[in-house]
Amino acid sequence: MDLTPNVSTSCLPNGAHPVRGYIYIASATFLWGVAATLGRAVFTGRLLPFGVVLRPIDPLILSQSRTTFSLLVLLPILGAGRGWRNLKLPTADLGKCFLLGVLGVAASNYFYYFAIQKTNVATAIILQYTAPVWVLLYMIARGFQKPTLQRIAAVGLVVAGSALVIGVIGAGGFRLNPIGVIAALLAAFSFAFYNIGGHGILARCDRWKVLLWTLLAASFFWIVVNPPWQISAAHYSGGQWVFLLFFSLISVLAPFSFYFAGLQHLEPTRAVVASCLEPVFSIIIAAIVLGEVLRPIQTLGIMIVLAAIILVQMPDRATRQEPTVIEPIE
């Protein structure tokens, strides 16, 4: 899911290599899959790599620390590489970045990891990945896009697939934590807001500056919600802080670097479809590492939702419009 405004294939550089682009994006989605599994492990105090067992960490701390650490690493890199004055944005765009940081990045991060804590990786990520459908419904409601057969089919598929994933339909009935399911849907809505609100600013501004200022806004928001003295009172160990720093690197900075590199070799439509590897990697890694087992009916639901995600983001033949989708900062 692309963090750039829509462009055509002709906008790609002459030295673009599609295979290399797919490798970069696959690397990014793999790291996001690893991050989702690590998040689930640390919420439950499960065994982490290298035989380390950590006391469970609250989703709020995980969301806050990964945003703040990512900002502290990214800021000096961009400042030294581009010059501090070149990181400025117009005042109006700063206000939009603040909204994206709070209602988009911070909200989607927290609800996503809270959903992972309360349910499982598969449920949280597949429900969050329904966001493109909510974006589509918004665009149709506002008259920006037409309700074509392709789009209506995608909405129907994602609703049916989600119902199978969370157990509304199928043998055994609903078994998941309702609060966790609601949190996953809220994460999807926050991601959708980030998608819609971010398109205009990304069409005008450099993507790294937008990422920097949205991370700054999210970090400031978390400091207000959970000030330093409350964090200190939680008495997290040195091992937990090392984990949180490592987690921020593999869940934000490293995968976004790979993803942006992939965009230099692939047009948005192909990048969007390739990014659907993220829920696949997340679910497979969680199954292998944490032993999360899916019932056959849930597996079918996941496949249906993935098909809907790809369908909804394909160029529409009637209008020839490219999708407007942004990768979630998970």
Query: What gap, in angstroms, lies between the N and C termini?
Result: 12 Å
Question: In total, how many domains does the architecture comprise?
Answer: 1
* Count, helices: 13
Structural class: mainly alpha
H-E string = HEEHHHHHHHHHHHH
Shape: globular
How many β-strand runs? 2
Query: Rounded to an integer, what's the Rg over CA atoms?
Result: 19 Å
**How much β-strand is present in the residues?**
under 5%
What characterizes the major β-sheet?
Answer: 2 strands, antiparallel
> If you average the pLDDT, what whole number results?
79
Question: Please, what is the oligomeric state?
Answer: single chain
Q: Helical content, roughly? A: over 70%
Uncertain runs with pLDDT below 50, 5 residues or more?
Answer: 1-11, 320-324
Across the major sheet, the strand order is 1-2
In short:
70% of the residues lie in helices and 1% in strands.
Describe it for me?
By secondary structure, the protein is mainly alpha-helical. The chain has one domain (17-46, 54-312). The protein is built from 13 helices and 2 strands. It has helices at residues 18-44, 59-82, 91-118, 121-128, 131-141, 149-166, 178-204, 207-225, 228-233, 238-263, 268-274, 277-290, 296-312, and strands at residues 47-48, 52-53. The protein has a two-stranded antiparallel ribbon with strand order 1-2. It is globular, with a radius of gyration of 19 Å. Mean pLDDT is 79; it is low at 1-11 and 320-324.
